[in-house]
Structure formats: C-alpha cells, structure tokens
Amino acid sequence: MSAVAADAQHGEVSSQGSHTGPMVVARGVEYAFGTDANPKPILKSVDFTLEPGEFVILTGPSGAGKTTLMSLIGALRTVQTGSIKVLGTELEGLSPIGQRDVRRRIGFIFQDHNLFDALTAFQTLRLAMELIEPHPSYDEALVRARAIMEPLGMAEELNSQPGQLSGGQKQRVAIARALINEPALILADEPTASLDQGSAGAVIGIVRERITRSRAAALMVTHDTRLFSVADRVVRMEDGRVTDSN
Q: Domain span at residue 55?
C-alpha cells in the first residue's frame, strides 16, 4: 500500500497547531488525466480560497472536477499546473514527505469508510490518536472517543467491529476518526450519502462545532441539498471551472 493510500485509510491527522492566513489558496489550477499526447482536461484555471472558520460546500454535476480539486488540496494527487497553498505550505513541487506532513494536518472523510475489519470502533479511533504527539493514555483516549461518538449516536458501539455495524454506522465511525484529533482542515467527499437526516445533522453539528472552537475550516463535496443552508458558502463547479460562489 502506498503512503498516500495508507494516510487516507488511517484517517491520518494531527492537531491544528498555529496557522494564520487562509487555509487554502488555489490559483490557476489545471489538471488532466491521460497521456501528454492525449490529455483529458479535468480542471481549467481554477481559483479558490478557504478561510479559517469557514464551512464551504462544493457542488456541481458528476465529472465537474470536484473530487479532483479536493484530492489536490488534500495532497492526495500531485499539482500539475498552478499553485495550491494548504495551511501555508505550497503543494506544487512538494516532496512526498512534505505531502505526508500536510496530510497529517487534515481530516479526510470519504464515501467509502475504509475501516479495518479486525478493529473495533474504539480501536480505530485510538489508532488515529496514536498518530499525533503526545499520545493519549488509554483512559484519555476512551474519554475522547466517547465524547465524539455520543453525538453521532454511536456511544454504545465503541466495542463493535465493522461487520457488526450497518453502512451508516460504519460511516459515522469514519467521520469520528477524521475529527478525533481536531484537524486544521476537514475534507469530506459525500460524507452524509449513507446517513439519515438525523445522523447527517449530527455530523454537520460536530463539524460546525470544531470549526467554531478551533478556527478550523471544512470543504465538503456533496449533492445533499439538505446541507446547503448550513454552509457559509456554496461553490458550484461545471466542466472543470468554478462557475458560482455564494
């Protein structure tokens, strides 16, 4: 498994630390798949800024480039053209180790929960907490795990393995894993797709609370119109370009 895949699967994040200025600044970003002789443009001169304390939804039709842009911001893909600064670090030309260090300050939530079948929910969260310094004690980790799982309606499932959980419950564990270390930046790709309205509301409430308390920021790709009203901005993409931001 590559370092990128391992970071994503483990939900690798670290505490916010100190950062001033915008969380994300993208300028003139272009990206294409395919060969140099036959490239398929996905992103076309994208400009985007995400400020501390801001919750932004990225929406648009399938194939618009939303997930590609998010993966570039999360240092899960290498910048081809343009500039992307994340938490003050320029990603263009950044080494693999530098990319890893950026990812450690981000909480990732994907459509696929990426849980380890052999680990209970608490073990999953404790493993995420082991990725930052100082490592919390067992008792401290348990307190933190309960505190984040309770609002998600999962306090009784701390000792459950993925095989004992529904699809929605697995996703809530993955969401808790992404947020447990209070990351500076939260990147979420359709995180509420498998959740009912109550659970989706709880997830957004937790994200909002984290943003408000620690001046973190969140960028969420979603088609879930239930969430649009709680965002600070809704940014629309079409055909690889940002077409609207309000």
A: 3-18+50-75+106-245
